[in-house]
Amino acid sequence: MKNNFIIFAIVVIFNYCISNALAENKFYVITFQRNKKDKDFDRMSYFDQKSFVELVNERLNDIYNVIIDNKNTYVAKNGTLDKTIEEEIDKVNHLRKRHDGTQDEQAKLNFFGYRRNRLKKGGVNEGKSDSSSSSSNSSTVFNENYEKDKIKYIPVNSRIVSPICPVANTYAISVYLSSSIVKDLKERVSDIVQIEETGLGKSEAISNEKFYDEEEILKETNWKGLSVQENNFDYDLRFSHLSLISQDKYYDRNNSFYDNNYYYPASAGKGIDIYIIDTGLYVPESKYDFDINSDERTISCDAICSYESCDETTEEEKHRCFSRRYDVKYHGTHVAASVAGLVNGVAKKANIHMIATDIDSRDDLAALDYIGSHADPHKTVINISRGYRYFSYLANKVSELASQGFIFTVSAGNDNVNACNRDRLYSGLDTVITVGYTDNALLTTSKTMEDMYRRASRSNYGPCVDIFAPGTVRITNEPRDNGLITSTGSSFASPFTAGVVALIMAENPEIEYNVKLMKETLISLSLKDKILDMPSSTPNRFLNNGKRSLYQAPRCDDPSGKYSCEDGCCSKFGHCVDISTQFIRSKDLCNINSGCQSEFGICYPLRCNSKYGKDVCKEDECCSAKGECVSLLDDSRNLCFIENGCISKYGGKCLSWDLDAIDDTIDDKYKNKIYDKNCKKELEPYSSCFFKYYDEDNRYNYFTEDELKEVCQEYKDKKCLEFIDSPFKFAPSCEKATEYHSYVEIPKRTKKINFEIAERNLMCSVKNTSSNDDFCDISYKFFVKGYDEIYEDTRYKDECKYQECRANLLEYFVALYNLGSRPDYKNLIKYMKSDACINADILKTTTTTTTTTPDTTTTVDDITTIIDDTTTIDDATTTVDTTTTTTTTSDTTTTVDDANTTVDDATTTVDDATTTIPTTTTSTTTTTIPTTTTTTTTTTTTTTTTTTTTTTTKKATTKKTTSTKKTTTTTTTIKKKSTPTSNKYISVKFKGTISYSKYYLGTKKLGEQNTFHLFDNDDGVSAIYRTWHITSKTDPSYLYLSKAEYGNDGKPSDLCLDLSSYTNSEGYNFLSIVKCSNAKHKFKYGGTYSKTIDIYDKNNKHITDKSGNKLCIYYNMTPRVYRCDYINKKSNKKAQNMAWDISYL
User: Fold this and answer.
1) Would you say 406 and 377 are in contact if contact means Cβ atoms under 8 Å apart?
2) Where do the domains of the chain lie, and which CATH numbers do they carry?
3) Does the structure show a pLDDT above 80 at 300?
4) What is the pLDDT of residue 1103?
């Protein structure tokens, strides 16, 4: 909210201007609060922010209406209606008319419609740190909520009622009020926290302060005055030839920003004549450099020397001259601009005198003679940017003029050779200042500003080269022109030096400089040993005009944001670039791929994560955290979610994973994506439930024992068996998502998938469920030892001893049979289900009750007690209660010899676990029953009346003596659960179709279940329990689950179909299996429609949802309840998932 103060200051200043005219009508700042317990606005959830903005907009409408109703209280000093109010009313009436063709004053106003950047929104979800908040566009937040509202909202940019910004957990607005309205506004408008007048304050907006110190520079240089050409740094280094010579060497490692300004004395070479012997002058080449109408100096082509003589130019030729034989005017023009051009030149006030010549030694000689007769010694610099082989007449003429006080600067040449040979003119002469050049041509990805101090590869060298200067100049007609011309070589290093000479002479007019003194002065001012790649024989000196201090220019990427580029781009170098520049290389810096920093300026392609790229995203796009516009529907990386940093402040939409935030404002196509994301997240913990145990060629990857322990431990810790059976119980979002998506963790239950599940279950089976690593023998052999002949080895029968081993091996054989349907597999299944296998379980627990009769010996031979194997003990919850009664009889002793009691072959079936009670023999009376626990009511009977007991007694002998008789009676309680009492049961199957696969309404497990999973008909015997029993075809009936396996008729169990306590995201219940005594709902086929299974309560009343819609059974992988009249939105027909087929057995 760094701009809030500036916005506030603007309001303050505006108020100040108005208040001078309107004494009683003032601007006020009003703050609203939704709830004292609210978080700060920037920390609110996206949806709380929406709610708050809506509230603020409603209150703004309330205040606006109060103002309009009391407009007569706005009186100006002259007694008329305040013009601010009058203009506001006219404007709003015009907007209303334009909006709907009427002046309907009932339509409300959207005060956020034109305030796109005023709202600072954090979009923080619960559990997310405040530091990672994202932003939202206020108008988007408001408009997307009211888009489908029946009330009309007219966007308005109001002067009298206007939102400013959030402040902590309040929202501040600016309101223009009359004194009479202020008094009771709190009573008229709700949620107002405070009303305060605005006041004048000191603006803290950033000023354009100079980052350099003028006094320090003048003190350092001893200049009489300072001039600064302030240049933005650009990739083309347009003005680097000037900035480089007015500061010390710049080092990138200082992490500073290169100062591209050119500092020079205010005298700027004024009064000094610079003569240039070159090809000519063409002023239109750079009209901005050549200020020909200036009164301060002269810019002229004085003569044209050709064919051994010089002719003074005509008036027309003063600004357009070139040699007679060659039309090569540009070289001379660029040299002139370099030495004294107003934009590109060093000495901006020096006089320019061009002597146009052909490149001929005779013409040069004539030109030198012309200068000697027209120029003033000690006030003239002569620049020659060309070279010849040695001619004594030229060398002597130069020496003659030098001795008179004329100063020469000449180019060293561009041949990468020693310039000091006697046979070279002019560089080899002692009477001139010879200049080599450095490479300031351009920056590249591998070339930095430090490389600007490197000797150019083509520059000549040698001990006679007195100094080096930048060698590249860029010339344009206007500073922002497209026609950028680059010239490089020692031809331009020489005039740069000539310009510095002119600065020195103009700044020190009392000194009569000659070549020797000027050379010494330049050497004294130069930067020593700063140039890279300099041959050892060449003096290492870089041109400097006397100012060495370094200043760090402000970087546009300063974290404070003070120097952001409002109308340009912020380059990777930290400088602003004018986006309208025609300089291609500079414009490239504004490309995001060139490192342009979008948070500090405009970058291309535009980034949506800053104000510079607002509204760049389309309606169906979001703005990612990196500023990229991403299609909401094709967002494979989930960048469009607020939780991943999606930004909606400057345009674009954002989604949230929060399922509670889904409402009617969110399009169905986006809801599907949200469900998909939540589903994937909920499934993450269960990915290990489908661990791979085979390679790409379906060959087993056998485990070590430790590996098997590890993978199976996780398999059990994750409750994979429960998850596979009821995935939507663990991943509720997936119930919606699976309508459009498929997931590895919720596979279609094909034969192959069922086989893999069975194989994993078998792999992790243990002998004793209290141990996690006592693996079944067959699991260890098969998956650790790699022994794969388990079908042929009769030792698989040993697994019958252990309940889990037997059950999972049976499941495995069934799945295997479905894959191959071989007869031997069916035999394996038959055996695993046989009584012989079931009765082999050695882990069944028994309770032995022994009756002891002291002083009595009872012998009962061949007495056999049989417990009928049809007795059903419900859910292993039988209660055993032992009651002991003692009876005392005097003077009687009874002896029973040779009495043996044998309980043989007693078997009791418990649930589908099929528990077998083995025979127990003892020398005393012994009764064997299963150990069970329960909290149910106990029924007591004596062992002498146990159901279906046969007793055989022989060889009983009694002796009568005198003693005390003690008789102990043991009472055993067995709770027996009976099946439904009705004899008129009708067996039915219900079948549905999902994605062309047939599914039966049924469950694999014969037991209570909160939810259950449907099984594909193609799986054959894998769906063990499929049939149901009803008591009527015409009236609602409980649905009794059959005991029969594999879709057979069978008998009804004591389990019934009911509604689960689990619901989906829409609040509709899943189905469950419960005890029939606890069942609360009945069902009827063909109730509402011909193929629906309607749901009723115990009183045969059709149940409905909150909206009064009748409810039926809806089938998918986990069946549940839904509206009977559910219509498929895609086909606009009654949904297939509500229609069941029935068959009676």
Assistant:
1) yes
2) 18-95+152-202 (no CATH), 269-542 (3.40.50.200), 567-605 (no CATH), 986-1141 (2.80.10)
3) yes
4) 94
